[in-house]
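Fold these two proteins, one after the other.
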Amino acid sequence: MAVPFCVGKLIDILSSSKEDMKNSLIGYCQVLVLIFAVGALANLGRVYLMNTSSYRIVNSLRKRAYRSILSQEVGFFDCTSTGELINRLSSDTAAVGTSITNNVSDGMRSAFSFIASSSLMVFTSPSLAMLGLMTVTPVAVIAVVSGKSLKRNSQQVQSALASATQVAEERLSNIRTVHAFARLNEEYDLFQSKVNSIMQFATKEALGRAVFFGMVRNLFNQS
């Protein structure tokens, strides 16, 4: 958040007298280089720590989930498909690890940037800042509504992926039976329909994300 402030000072220096311009310009350029260097190091550390933390959380979740699955009664496995359990151990644990680390980190960074930028806007021009902050309410409403829709779409993608994984695992584990009854084409068509359903839900999710980010960025650019 110090970059816009320094850029504003550079503009003030360029519009000042030529006698003091050179020394002041060099000084502010040095400050900018220092700010960019510190920001790059901080970003490097944040990304490294968040990614390693995510991997550690995912590993711990997979171990606990697998231990919990093994301790269930036999009737649990009759009601729950193997493909769904494997999908929970693979993709769902990765999604939880990412949500706990990267998403929380990005959310905290965005919240801090919002507070700092709002404070600078109020300090510079309170009336203009209030006009700009008026766009926060509609953006927040759109974010809540779109977030629920994206969550439903993501759940549908995960369920479709679990179904496709279940079909593939069951058929491949009983491949001799499939060959014996000459049902290669039928099983391929079944798996193809499952994969196509994943693509449909994924396309719907991608469209929802595109509309959400397009609307939000458009509102911020207009403000």
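Now the second one:
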Amino acid sequence: MRLHRAPLLLLGAVLGSLVPGSRCVSSKHSLCYSYLTVSEPSQGLPQFLSMVHLDDQPIARFDNHTRKMEPLVPWMEMEETKIFVAPEWLFRVDLETLSNFNHQTRGPHIWQAILGCELWEDGSKGGFLHYGYDGMDFISFDKETLRWVAAQPQAEKVKEKWEDLPRWSLRNKFFLEETCIEWLQRYLSHRKEALQRTEPPVGKVTRKVVDDRLEVLICQAFGFYPKEIQATWTRDGEVCDYETLPRNVAPNSDGTYYVWLSIDIDPKERNHFQCRLEHQGLQGPLVLTLEEES
């Protein structure tokens, strides 16, 4: 897990999606809890922030400004959000302890944790718990051995302290292997119930003029579910894979998805290009051309 260094980037990563390199975003199902605390918040940023992700979708958040868990998808409003209230005081104490260990009295300093579980289609399970300090990997939990793995020399004192708490290690193992998996299955069930209907994509093509000899065509597809979609540019019916700049499918707040892709063209050739969308919510391929501009 690689953590950003700057507080603003850290907050942005947790708010928008998970930190790059984390295991919360994957093809398998996952439930992930992210925590971040800053010793000296600035620019109106929260001092403590917690996010919950189901697969690649943020479903709930908590910060010290609002002091309450906020559902980020409609189906989460029925859940008991008190289970997500993060131990803010514990993270604050951890950060103070780390500063004392490393004789760092001036900040700002950042303490970040990411934990959760994974469930594969064949029924196998996984769990993870990582901590980061000042934007770097710091220490992680091995639930099989109940040991802590220090990623930095400064983490050795923390490792010694935490391994003197065997009951806490057992509680971590139980949460990752049992409690987290139960909640993951519960949320998957809620999301499935909320999205029983297949939602077809709504699409459009727009353009951006670069100069007299170059413009960019942009194809956008909105509001589709499930996530799987095939979006391609074609020229006179032939696929233009090598010319297409692909974009990842991203989640909407209502549980549906969107995607966009662009292609550079000669304006004189504009009428030869179409965007082709294929999705199980469509009866057949949806072929889009540039909309007439008023």
